[in-house]
Design goal:
four-stranded parallel beta sheet; Rossmann fold; about 325 residues; binds adenosine-5'-triphosphate; 2 domains; elongated
Length: about 325
């Protein structure tokens, strides 16, 4: 009987539990034995694996975080660490590993594959920073969390007639700022993918004030620049005080939205079926609502799709 292991790795994302549930239940459906690995690759090295059954993943579809826990493992980056992990898999006769995480975790999966372990990746990260897939698990929930914050901040921003800079997660990818900003009606959105000048934002604030606009919400992806520096320059340009709100880790938690639960469930089932079909060193993705199976290396080389339409929309609608 084929034995498969599943693990979650890197930063946690809402919907990881729903993905593990789907992997476990799909594996059992196809009569595989399924093992859960605690704390990602770190747990694999330590042999922290446990056989799971249908009840092990009961009552978790709606919960944020990951019941398997997650970790970043420096030891797994070394050949010695990986050998220990592979020895643990061989000891239990496990021939395939399903890795739920971001690009780093996929590189880890690829490394396991080179040692003869069949691997399939499922994309889960709130950043939506993987170019080969339209969406990653956790992104929609994070957008909604940020959106709630934007709505609340808008009230106080209007009452005090102030500009508010909201810093959100996104080191290399501004999707969280862009989607939540567009949905929340933010006046300005600053993302790492697109250059900006403080001058153009200051002009927009002044223009808004002229037509009686009370607030100005500026969404800033953390990788696009320092909130304090932008604040200082803006204040110097406009002569107006502004506020900064850093949303931080609240963006990573919370119950997954329906969209994330569905995406996670679909991708979990697809991963097991891809494994059954013999796919290896492959990642599951979604392209125009169709699930895809792509080679990891090829997937990670793909650049992000251009979100030009949303940027244009914000420019036109947020005058
Ligand atoms: P997030 O997008 O949330 O940061 P991630 O999966 O990209 O998630 P990383 O910390 O980059 O998170 O990677 C998770 C783990 O994957 C690392 O701690 C390491 O154990 C493993 N890993 C990353 N890159 C490699 C690599 N090149 N070779 C082997 N293992 C790797």
């Amino acid at each position: 009987m084929k034995k498969i292991a599943v693990l979650t790795s890197g930063g946690d994302a809402p919907g990881m539990n729903a993905a593990v549930r789907a992997v476990v239940r799909a594996a059992l459906y196809y009569n595989y034995e399924i093992y859960g690995v605690k704390r990602g690759f770190e747990g694999l090295i330590k042999g922290d694996l446990e056989q799971l059954n249908a009840s092990s993943v009961g009552d978790i579809i709606h919960k944020g975080g990951t019941f398997l826990k997650t970790a970043r493992s420096k030891t797994f980056m070394t050949p010695e660490g990986r050998k220990q992990a592979i020895d643990q898999l061989h000891a239990l006769n496990i021939s395939a590993v399903i890795v739920i995480g971001g690009d780093g975790s996929f590189r880890g999966a690829e490394a396991l594959s080179r040692e003869g372990i069949q691997t399939i990746g499922i994309p889960a990260t709130i950043d939506n920073d993987l170019g080969y897939t339209d969406f990653t698990i956790g992104f929609d929930t994070a957008v909604n969390t940020v959106l709630r914050a934007v709505t609340n901040i808008r009230d106080t921003s209007s009452s005090h007639e102030k500009t508010t800079i909201i810093e959100v997660m996104g080191r290399n990818c501004g999707d969280l700022a862009l989607y939540a900003g567009a949905a929340g009606g933010a006046e300005s959105i600053i993302v790492p993918e697109k250059p900006f000048t403080v001058q153009e934002i200051a002009d927009k604030i002044r223009k808004g004030r002229t037509r009686g606009k009370l607030h100005h919400i500026l969404m800033l992806a953390e990788g696009a620049g320092s909130a304090t520096e932008i604040q200082q320059k803006l204040e110097a340009e406009t002569g107006e005080k502004s506020r900064i709100t850093v949303l931080g880790f609240i963006q990573r938690g919370g119950d997954p939205t329906a969209a994330d639960r569905l995406l996670a469930s679909r991708m979990g089932l697809k991963a097991v079926e891809a494994c059954r079909d013999g796919a290896d060193s492959a990642v599951i993705g979604i392209d125009k609502n169709d699930l895809t199976v792509t080679n990891i290396d090829e997937a990670l080389k793909r650049g992000k799709k251009d979100d030009g339409e949303l940027t244009r929309l914000t420019t036109i609608l947020s005058t």
